Structure prediction request, 384 residues.
Amino acid sequence: MAQHDVLFTPVRLGALALPNRLVMPAMMRMRAIGGVPHPATAEYYAQRAAAGLIIAEATAVSIDGAGYPGMAGIYTARQVAAWRAVTDAVHDEGGRIVLQLVHHGRLVSKTDLPPAFHPVAPSAIAASGRAVTRAFERVPFDVPRALDDTELDAVVSTFWKAARSALDAGFDGVEINAANGSLLDQFLHDGANRRGGAYGGPIDNRVRLLLNVVDAISDAIGPDLTGVRLSPFGRMGALTDSDPVALYAKTFASLDARSLAWLHLIEPGSPTSDIDEWTETVRVAYTGAIISAGGHTAESAARAINDGVAAAVAFGRPFVANPDLPLRLRLGLPLNVADEETFFGGGERGYTDYPAIARRLAGVGIKPREAPGQSRSISGLCAP
Ligand SMILES: Cc1cc2nc3c(=O)[nH]c(=O)nc-3n(C[C@H](O)[C@H](O)[C@H](O)COP(=O)(O)O)c2cc1C
Prediction:
């Protein structure tokens, strides 16, 4: 077997049978219009259907859960219908697609919320840094309102409902975003979670909301269609913890007991991580299938699989720029480089107009269509 051939061997993640180990991780492109996926989103994901698995972009579970401009949601019938067109397009191309579910908690800007709403969090502690508003302006984060314990069942229900809606929209499963400073991540970390009671204080309490969400979604759609994303030691969302090794060892062990389809990790050593290597106590606490993400090349991906540390490997920016990434990696062909200027916002430009090699080989010119909106790169925002 050639060096990278292991990337092209099939693997099972829970109930999902992947024909290869290359995963397109969640990447919001901030092109949704009024919370509804952009009309070009179906084509965008369908172009990338050769991935072993597509994890569609972080999508808000509720109206107060979207922390970035141009994010889609999955809490209205219109959104579900728009996502249905996306999943149909991917399935027509023979692909598999799950949806990443998120509530951004204190990362949401009040500017973008209806008047009756205020950003929520485990404690009334603002994130340091600045929010990006719907108008792509930078404003200080608001001091969030601390959720009461009695409100947390409703938060769990919103995730539960969103998972049901995702399956109604034709998704093959869901990934729960407990990474990069999202609400569930905020509850994990004692820098943001200073509450008392059942959801604050000791690690067992801080992990409770995540586990309640995992259990509710597992009940609704099955643990074998449910994955979780974590960013241990990550620095997105300005989260800190007094003992991150103990926090993640416990979180991994608790998730391990739940027989999920996958645990998706943004690895130490990635640009958004605070440490370079795993501490042994953390990594060994999880024995199920892991998707590894963060700065992978074909070489590092093959190594992760051969060493048994990952079942599959995510390629983020390479999938943005290379709709046919699996073919290119397999044949050792050059990769297009992602244009950061068009990561966020805008329309088809920098979205559906990256050339696939087969089209280039056939001499077909790719003409970018007119983009309805302006694209932005947002400095410091590389991995929301
Ligand atoms: C444009 C862009 C948007 C992203 N959006 C999300 C997101 O919605 N949810 C998430 O968990 N990670 C998000 N990320 C992080 C990626 O999933 C991935 O972990 C990161 O890009 C590292 O992988 P790479 O080095 O292969 O690009 C985003 C990254 C990029 C570049």
About this structure: Residues 364-373, 379-384 have pLDDT under 50 and may be disordered.
